[in-house]
Amino acid sequence: MELRVEKLERRLAYARSRKASVASHVNDALPNLEPERKDSLADIKAAIHRRHVRNRENSDVNSLLSDFGYL
Question: Does the reported pTM lie above 0.85?
């Protein structure tokens, strides 16, 4: 029983040391998250714009082809 308690105490000490280590890394990483989010938002907006342009081109081509069908 004492062996089990000692093992759990070691695991608890290790977990506490990891928690402190992770907390310091998280605080360092937080300022870097904001530019990534802005970049990803810009990427999403660019993808939406490309999709809109592609849909408009497809619509124009379909309209042109349908005009040839009437001739």
Answer: no
Cα radius of gyration rounded to whole Å, the chain: 29
- Span 2-48, pLDDT tens digits: 788 888 888 888 888 777 666 555 555 455 545 566 678 888 888 99
Helix, strand, or coil (residue 1): coil
Amino acid in position 49: H
Three-state helix/strand/coil letters over the chain: CHHHHHHHHHHHHHHHHHHHHHHHHHHHHHHHHHHHHHHHHHHHHHHHHHHHHHHHHHHHHHHHHHHHHHC
The two tokens of residue 46 are 């660019």
